[in-house]
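Mods, move this if it's the wrong board.
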Amino acid sequence: MTGKVVGMIVPLNQLPAYELAAALHMVERYHADAQKVLKTLDQFNAAARLAAAPIIGANQ
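Not the wrong board. Structure tokens:
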């Protein structure tokens, strides 16, 4: 994407097809990265719950 004017809002039907394709590719890539982060956080959360289970059980 050229990004000649930062922060300018342009209607999608006025953008060249290659810029729309580049924007879609970026969104897809960042979405995939976000999904990986969420999966990692879920795994960390599950591990933390397993590690804390004996402590929580002893304090109840």
